[in-house]
Amino acid sequence: MERVTENVFTNTKIRGCNPSIVFTDEGAVFIDTAQWISTLLEMIDFAKSKGPIKYLINTEPHIDHIFGNHWFAGVCPVIGHEKIADTFFDVPGDMDGYDYSVDVLERQDKEFLPFMPSREEYIVNPPQITFNERMSLKVGNHTFNVYHTPGHADSQIAVHVPEERVLFTGDTLFVGCQTWLHSANIDELISSLQFLKTLDVDYIVPGHGPVVGKEYIDVQLALIYKWISAVAGGIAQDWTLDECIKKISFTDLPVDIGQAEMMDYVQRTNVTKCYNYIKG
Ligand SMILES: [Zn+2]
User: Fold this and answer.
1) Which of 43, 62, 63, 182 could lock onto 269 through a cystine, CB 3.0 to 4.6 A?
2) What's the 236 CA to ligand 1 centre distance in angstroms?
């Protein structure tokens, strides 16, 4: 685990999201959960060694952020956006969320597969506390300003902890790796990134990739514009969607850890998303 500030820890070097913990003087607040059971249990043990676990906040419905919610059932309330239940536990491809998770563990965290509950025992555990536009939560000496920042997903949120000068963006920001637009609303994503620029923070824990400063928000915006303008260029030459998919790709950045096989999926769905966006 990496220490971001005095009271903030995260894990940016595993497959899936960057699960994080903020320690308050009343206990721990988790932000997203690890997709590997080994890391998940290590983080839960670490938190418990310092006190109770008070809340889990889910920044989005994608499986790599919420797989571990099972382990928080009966432990603490879960917080998320009111629309999160609509797509909670969805995964790309044909598998359901349960089989998808078992497949990940079999390939990448096999030693901890015995800790995976059976399908019948697995508790999906979506948020019980939900909000619409924004919410402010006081836990001990810390404030959690939680904002609806739609774009990457409909129910995307960001968590700002002013006392630590840290912002957790979920997948509104991908750092040093491929940006997934597969479920994006492009206009909303751009305006959410613009909004995040207005927050006064020193550290951003993105959905994927290393911790960065606010300047990276412009890098993310530029990447999105690069995709849009490449596809707009194709459309200007009367390329069909299939031609755009065949001819346009940006594979200079890797897919985040442990997901190299998703490169084609990301390229295809990003082009498709931009194509439909431009065509209206
Ligand atoms: Zn996501």
Assistant:
1) 182
2) 30
Q: Measured between alpha carbons, how far is 113 from 3 in angstroms, rounded to an integer?
A: 28
Q: What is the pLDDT of residues 194-218, one digit of tens each?
A: 999 999 999 999 999 999 999 999 9
CATH 3.60.15.10 fits 2-170+187-214, yes or no: yes
Question: In the Cβ-directed half-sphere of 111, how many Cα atoms lie within 13 Å?
Answer: 3
Which pLDDT tens digit goes with each residue over 46-80? 999 999 999 999 999 999 999 999 999 999 999 99
pTM of the entire predicted model: 0.96
Residues with CB under 5 Å of ion ligand 1 are: 62, 171
Task: Compute the distance from residue 153 Cα to the ligand 1 centre, in Å.
Answer: 7
